[in-house]
UniProtKB/TrEMBL annotation:
SUPFAM superfamilies: MOP-like, Putative DNA-binding domain. GO terms for molecular function: DNA binding. The lineage of its organism: Bacteria, Bacillati, Actinomycetota, Actinomycetes, Micrococcales. Transmembrane segments: none annotated. Keywords: Molybdenum. Pfam families: MerR, TOBE. One of its GO terms (biological process) is regulation of DNA-templated transcription. The keyword Flavoprotein does not apply. InterPro entries: DNA-bd_dom_put_sf, MerR-type_HTH_dom, Mo/tungstate-bd_C_term_dom, Mop_domain, SinI_DNA-bd, Transp-assoc_OB_typ1. Residues 67-132 form the Mop domain. This is Helix-turn-helix domain-containing protein.
C-alpha cells in the first residue's frame, strides 16, 4: 500500500500540514507509523477524504460559479493572461494545480480576463493519461 508523509498528504489534499495533524487528532483521518517511526497517511485514507469533499472541493464551495455538465472543473485565480494578435494564453491556479488554457484573444477580452480574477477551468477530453512520479515503484 502507498503511504505518504504528512507534508505530502497535505499537498495532495490542498491543506496545511497542521490541518492534516488536526484532522488526525480529531479522528477524521487515520495515521499510521512508517518503518522509520514517522507518522504516515495511507493513500486509501486520502482517497476516502477526497471522496468526502463535495463536488468541486472547498474552492468551488466557497466561490460557486455557473453550473455545468463538465465534471473536471477547477475553480481558482487567474494568475497570468498573455494576449497576442489572435490568441491568448490564460493561466489559472486552483489549489495545488496550474491550468493553462489557449483561447482566442476575442474570448479572453469578452470575459475580461485579468490576473487576480476568480474563474473556473473545465476540461473534457477523449484521452486522459496517468503517469507515476519518477522513482515510484508500482
Amino acid at each position: 500500500m502507498t503511504s505518504f508523509r504528512i507534508s505530502e498528504a497535505a499537498a495532495l489534499l490542498g491543506v496545511s500540514d497542521d490541518t492534516v495533524r488536526r484532522w488526525a487528532d480529531a479522528g477524521r483521518l487515520e495515521l499510521e507509523r512508517g518503518p522509520n517511526g514517522m507518522r504516515m497517511v495511507a493513500g486509501s485514507e486520502l482517497v476516502r477524504l477526497l471522496g468526502d469533499e463535495p463536488d468541486g472541493g472547498a474552492l468551488a464551495q466557497a466561490f460557486p460559479l455557473a453550473r455545468a455538465s463538465t465534471r473536471n472543473r477547477f475553480v481558482g485565480l487567474v494568475t497570468a493572461v498573455e494576449r497576442d494578435g489572435v490568441m491568448a494564453q490564460v493561466e489559472l491556479r486552483a489549489g495545488p494545480f496550474r491550468i493553462v488554457s489557449l483561447m482566442s484573444r476575442e474570448a479572453a477580452d469578452e470575459l475580461g480576463l485579468e490576473p487576480g480574477m476568480l474563474a473556473a477551468a473545465s476540461a473534457k477530453a477523449t484521452v486522459v493519461s496517468i503517469e507515476l512520479p519518477g522513482g515510484v515503484d508500482a
